[in-house]
Amino acid sequence: MVEERASAEESGAAAVVVTDGLTKEYLAGVLTVRALRGVSLSVGRSEMVAIMGPSGSGKTTLLNLVGCVDLPTRGHYWLDGEDVSRLNDGALSRIRNERIGFVFQTFNLLPRLTAVDNVRLPLLYARRRISREVAMRALQRVGLGDRTHHRPSQLSGGQQQRVAIARALVMQPSILLADEPTGNLDSRSGEEIMLLFQELNREGVTMLMVTHDPQVARHATRIVRMHDGMVIADEAVTDRMDAREVLVGMPSPEPAGGEAEVGEGAMQ
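Predicted structure:
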């Protein structure tokens, strides 16, 4: 795997993510739980990779390591050619905020903030003096240019997930990590999120997505299968689903009722 990384760099097409022998162990009383067992993986720029596996297979643990939320017990992890597996907490926090975008199953939006102010949060944490227009453009990119001043309670589940995606993209990260991004959505809203992911991927956004749903995984360009903390299969998707075509065959959504009024109190 290290040879693969060197080869990629020499060719001028370095992988965004490279892991070599990633191992993660936890102590549970007197027992050692091996959540990851020597995972070696490479994610190329502009790839859309789905990680699948049963509960306890290590897929979320791997996503946490790639997201710099946790450190490996052994092994190495390179992000854009930098070995981040031995960095201190301050450096990891900076990388999480500036170079990695996160999308969660439960959206994780702050309920009192408007959509645009939720999207602005990473910019504020990074102490960047950037105008609200940057956050507005991120919302327009995900199709919510007309919902910028709505709070989460005034948005559907699919719209809330779009706000979360805009927030993940606003810092122009090296990679977008998604943990069960359609898990809390109905089938049509989930397919609309997959359409957005495919459009972003075509624009060059690199993605690593955990899912238990084989249909969702088929929207990716590649599927990595895990079991007992190990990668047991890594294969290109030859019958990739096109979310736009899937949506055409779905029933049209029912017309929405009256919209809730937008309240005051957005961040200035």
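Summary: Residues 86 and 167 are 27 Å apart (CA to CA).
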